[in-house]
Backbone:
């Protein structure tokens, strides 16, 4: 025999139980079921099996339940095979069976399980039970039951139990035997067995409400909310007029936050006892919670209109609150005036109604009553009076009457104080009042008073981040930057402060919003180092977390841990109970999620997928500054941080921020912001120049004919000591795509010159010369490359090559207008090949020319990074270099005195 479910039917399989649970969710529990439906045992053997299960321990019962599940499955398969197939057609589907065939199959199935369902005919149904269907015991059974009852009264439980088992074997459908067994186990403290036997008794006699009522306290004692709920509903079906059961049912729905059903149950109680004011109020509140204001008003109006004396002021107060929520201000005033007319002499309206009257008149634009209330009403210190004033102030603030709202918020402190000065409300509640006062002053434009009350609030609510941020903004607006910095800075004793913070909550000074506000304050103040120290690590950590979160795969499939957590709502299985399938106590939404989670777990278990997977896989983390790049206001903060890091020459730190920001903010950053990040000097000045290659490559891709862009590119590449394949590939690709672009050709020639491949270098320089023959730099490069080529061993026509080299150098000299630098380069070329006489001529010409200092051209990212004062005067003059080389020639020729005179003239300070 299988365990009996909530509907009294044996649970043939887990799937059937799930279907019944889903059907139960779609309608209102068991209350709407057929009252004449009941179940009885087929024979004594089935009854004894159920008794044995009710008294078996959990382990044995679990094994028996599995055996019964297998037996039920075999019976279903056998019944399915016995169905005749239609001739020349496929086997009919279950949903194609006629109503009679389906009913026959169900009856056969129930008889196979040992239970017979009592069904009533749809035609000619009569009220009341049929004659002869009442379970009556024989005289022998009645005598044994009396003996067992006497033994139970004498607390001889061990002697009574065998007699009761014999009664069950003889009369299996007699509820008294099960009831006595349940009572015995209840007295011995075996709660599970007591519940099982009492449930058997209740199911055998489902219309006996007393049996279900006896189960309710036992279920609560066991802390089984599902069982208690089930018993309450069954008892209500058995005795619909029992008000105590309706109370329990209403409280149950109220705890489940099913306010609609709770309101309906409470309203039923009101219909039975119209004078019960407490229940009427609760019913109105439940209707208010589920948004049915009109029904709540009707409930209270029916009572208020019938009362002429001894009015319950709390009911009238609730009714007026509902009127105000429904914008029926005039109706509320009428009720207040009617109540005032019924007052005795010297009697005043309660304070809550006076406050409601002030609110009503304020809605109508009349604030005189608020002034009268402030002047004439003197309240005793109490929590109720504090709540009344708080509600009044909140309504005035909502209506935009901030001046009066301030006065009432300040009145809360006076009402909260005793005569001896001791507080009757906690510090947080007082702090909340001060915050409201400060916010009202902010709206009124009185920042001075707003700051004062924010300071009072923060003394009571030190961990409130919103107060600190708002107060710091006000202080900055008032020019009190130092106070704002002190307010946002970590305390001197952070350990003491963190000990007072709530558990599992980081201290307020570690919050990302606080750090951002403090960093902005430092930046505006000019404290760049403090600015970087405050915000660098939070921003870097945020970018790293966001980058890691993007790598985490979007989990459309919920982890198994989440699924198992949701399934807990359905309740743990009851291996120690005969009765299974009780609907869990949860809201409809939670039940729907739990049922879906249960299906997913079963599906994964069947396919053997993901159950073996590690559920500790990475999940998305919460960054210190959520929404950093999603908020446009934060982009400027990131730009300021990168600029400051570059200015402080912390290039590697700046490069980390730039890399992550460009990867994460490609879709949200503006084009100008991205261009500024790329143009900062950090990528080009980082310790490892290879990190800046992609940035300079991007710049020259955007501006392929810009000399400054190619200068930036070459400045980064020239710092890479080893061969860099990406650089070579990019140069070749650029030369193929843009053959008229000169800078990559010159850079290629420089690369060959650096590795002493002068012939290849000369070939690249000559190619550039064809494109721009009037460029002095190209002429200089061609000349120097040819001179270096003549010094090799493989060249046959060296003299011709030297003549060609000097042809380019003299062209370079002409293009430069015989400048000091050009004269020095020509002299150096003669000196290099050993023509010292000609070298002396051009060194002397260079010494005769005076060169003024000229500003050194700077690349875009170098603006502001290097001060002009760092260079000594005369940095454009090369006479010292020319004089030194000239003295070497004189010294080598033996003219020592002449060499000494040249050094003394040009190379001494």
Residues:
């Amino acid at each position: 025999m299988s365990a009996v479910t909530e509907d009294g039917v044996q649970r043939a399989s887990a799937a059937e139980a799930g279907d019944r649970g889903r059907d139960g969710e779609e309608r209102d529990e068991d209350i709407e079921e057929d009252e004449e439906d009941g179940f009885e045992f087929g024979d004594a053997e089935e009854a004894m099996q159920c008794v044995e299960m009710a008294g078996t321990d959990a382990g044995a019962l679990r094994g028996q339940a599995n055996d019964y599940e297998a037996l039920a499955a075999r019976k279903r398969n056998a019944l399915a095979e016995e169905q005749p197939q239609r001739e020349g057609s496929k086997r009919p589907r279950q949903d194609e069976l006629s109503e009679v065939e389906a009913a026959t199959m169900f009856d056969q199935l129930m008889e196979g399980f040992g239970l017979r369902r009592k069904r009533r005919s749809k035609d000619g149904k009569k009220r009341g039970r049929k004659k002869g269907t009442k379970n009556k015991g024989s005289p022998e059974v009645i005598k044994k039951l009396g003996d067992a009852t006497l033994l139970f009264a004498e607390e001889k439980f061990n002697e009574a139990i065998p007699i009761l088992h014999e009664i069950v074997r003889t009369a299996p459908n007699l509820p008294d035997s099960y009831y006595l067994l349940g009572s015995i186990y209840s007295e011995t403290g075996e709660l599970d067995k007591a519940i099982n036997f009492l449930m058997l008794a209740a199911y055998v006699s489902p219309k006996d409400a007393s049996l279900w009522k006896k189960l309710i306290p036992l279920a609560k004692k066991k802390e089984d909310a599902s069982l208690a709920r089930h018993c309450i509903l069954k008892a209500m079906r058995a005795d619909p007029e029992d008000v105590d059961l309706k109370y329990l049912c209403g409280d149950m729905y109220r705890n489940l936050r099913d306010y609609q059903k709770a309101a309906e149950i409470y309203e039923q109680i009101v219909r039975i006892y119209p004078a019960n004011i407490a229940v009427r109020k609760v019913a109105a509140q439940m209707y208010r919670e589920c948004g049915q204001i009109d029904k709540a008003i009707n409930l209270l109006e029916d009572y208020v209109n019938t009362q002429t004396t001894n009015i319950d002021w709390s009911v009238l107060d609730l009714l007026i609150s509902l009127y105000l929520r429904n914008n029926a201000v005039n109706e509320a005033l009428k009720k207040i005036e009617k109540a005032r007319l019924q007052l005795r002499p010297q009697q005043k309206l309660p304070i809550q109604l006076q406050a409601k009257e002030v609110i009503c008149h304020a809605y109508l634009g009349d604030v005189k009553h608020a002034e009268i209330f402030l002047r004439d009403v003197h309240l005793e210190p109490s929590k109720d009076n504090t709540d009344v004033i708080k509600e009044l102030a909140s309504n005035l603030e909502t209506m935009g009457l901030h001046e009066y709202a301030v006065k009432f918020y300040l009145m809360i402190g006076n009402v909260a104080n005793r005569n001896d000065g001791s507080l009757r409300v906690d510090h947080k509640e007082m702090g909340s009042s001060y915050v409201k006062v400060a916010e009202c002053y902010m709206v009124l434009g009185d920042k001075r008073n707003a700051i004062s009350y924010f300071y009072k609030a923060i003394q009571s609510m030190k961990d409130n981040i919103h107060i600190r941020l708002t107060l710091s903004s006000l202080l900055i607006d008032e020019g009190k930057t130092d106070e704002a910095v002190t307010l946002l800075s970590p305390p001197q004793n952070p350990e003491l402060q963190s000990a007072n913070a709530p558990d599992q909550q980081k201290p307020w000074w570690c919050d990302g919003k606080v750090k951002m506000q403090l960093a902005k304050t430092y930046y505006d103040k000019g404290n760049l180092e403090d600015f970087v120290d405050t915000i660098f690590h939070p921003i870097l950590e945020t970018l790293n977390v966001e980058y890691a979160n993007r790598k985490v795969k979007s989990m459309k499939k919920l982890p198994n841990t989440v699924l198992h957590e949701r399934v807990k709502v359905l309740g743990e299985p009851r291996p120690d109970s005969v009765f299974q399938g009780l609907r869990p106590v949860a809201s409809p939404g939670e039940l729907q999620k739990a049922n879906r989670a249960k299906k997913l777990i079963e599906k994964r278990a069947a396919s053997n997928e993901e159950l073996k997977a590690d559920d500790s896989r990475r999940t998305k983390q919460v960054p210190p500054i959520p929404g950093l790049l999603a908020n446009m206001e934060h982009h400027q903060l990131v730009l300021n941080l990168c600029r400051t890091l570059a200015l402080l020459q912390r290039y590697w730190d700046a490069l980390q921020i730039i890399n992550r920001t460009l990867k994460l903010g490609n879709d949200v950053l503006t084009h100008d912001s991205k261009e500024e990040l790329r143009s900062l000097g950090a990528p080009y000045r980082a310790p490892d120049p290879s990190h800046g290659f992609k940035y300079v490559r991007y710049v020259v891709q955007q501006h392929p004919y810009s000399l400054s862009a190619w200068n930036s590119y070459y400045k980064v590449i020239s710092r890479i000591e080893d061969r860099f394949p990406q650089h070579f590939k990019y140069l070749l690709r650029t030369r193929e795509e843009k053959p008229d672009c000169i800078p990559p050709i010159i850079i290629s020639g420089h690369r060959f010159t650096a590795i002493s491949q002068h012939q290849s270098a000369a070939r690249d320089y000559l190619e550039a010369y064809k494109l721009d023959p009037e460029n002095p730099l190209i002429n200089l490069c061609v000349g120097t490359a040819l001179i270096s080529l003549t010094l090799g061993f493989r060249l046959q026509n060296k003299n011709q090559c030297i003549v060609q080299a000097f042809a380019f150098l003299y062209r370079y000299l002409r293009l430069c207008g015989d400048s000091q630098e050009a004269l020095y380069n020509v002299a150096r070329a003669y000196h290099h090949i050993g023509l010292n006489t000609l070298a002396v001529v051009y060194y002397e010409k260079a010494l005769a020319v005076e060169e003024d200092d000229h500003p050194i051209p700077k690349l875009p990212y170098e603006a502001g990074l290097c001060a002009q004062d760092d260079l000594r005067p005369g940095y454009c003059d090369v006479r010292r270099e020319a004089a030194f080389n000239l003295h070497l020639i004189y010294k080598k020729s033996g003219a020592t005195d002449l060499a000494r005179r040249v050094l003394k003239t040009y190379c001494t300070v």
